[in-house]
Design goal:
single chain
Length: 201
């Protein structure tokens, strides 16, 4: 029995030693875990210090509530503008009327120039015809009195260049007198006709 007791106490000792070994390992694990936690605590303390310095920087930067609200309002306005589609105003420029106006002006200018050329040509032809007539009369030497009269007129024109106005005025007077004479003759004929008609009644 004594060997049984020895054996029991020996088994008990082994179990106790095993348990104590396991307890030692657990204690070592817990110590390692606590050591890691203290290392993490240093990192956490450093993180807390950094956050504190950030808070101080934010307060020192001076971002007041007024500035923040103004910035927020500007962002809202910008978003409203971006959300609304821009209205595109299309203006049509018609160039055809300008071309028509330019063509009309060129046409009027061309017509005016052509009319001027035509009138100049007519006047030139008239001057050429009158010059030819004058030269033909000058070449007719049989009429001495006509030659003397033409010489007198030529010298009068040379002395008085305003003679043209006087001649034109006299021509108008002769023409007016001619029309008056024609009118008087016509009225005289009408009066005779009225007398004849009155005598028949």
């Amino acid at each position: 029995m004594e060997s049984e007791t020895n054996y029991g106490s020996h088994a008990f000792m082994e179990v106790a030693i095993n348990k104590m070994g396991k307890q030692d390992k657990r204690i070592e694990n817990i110590e390692a875990f606590i050591k890691k936690q203290t290392d993490n605590n240093a990192e956490i303390k450093q993180l807390v210090a950094t956050i504190g310095s950030l808070k101080e920087n934010v307060h020192n930067a001076g971002l007041s509530e007024k500035k923040m609200s103004a910035l927020s309002m500007q962002i809202d306005i910008l978003l409203d503008k971006l959300n609304t589609a821009p209205v595109q105003k299309v203006e049509h420029h018609h160039h055809l009327p300008k071309i028509i106006w330019a063509a009309a002006i060129l046409m009027i200018t061309l017509c005016t120039v052509c009319a001027g050329w035509f009138n100049t040509g007519k006047k030139l032809n008239s001057f050429i015809a009158n010059d030819t007539k004058y030269r033909a009369i000058r070449l007719d030497t049989a009429h001495k009195s006509l030659q003397q009269y033409l010489d007198h007129i030529d010298s009068a024109y040379i002395k008085s260049p305003d003679m043209r106005k006087t001649v034109i005025q006299k021509e108008k007077e002769y023409q007016t007198n001619f029309y008056r004479i024609q009118k008087a003759l016509r009225l005289k004929e009408e009066a005779k006709k009225l007398e004849r008609d009155a005598g028949k009644k």
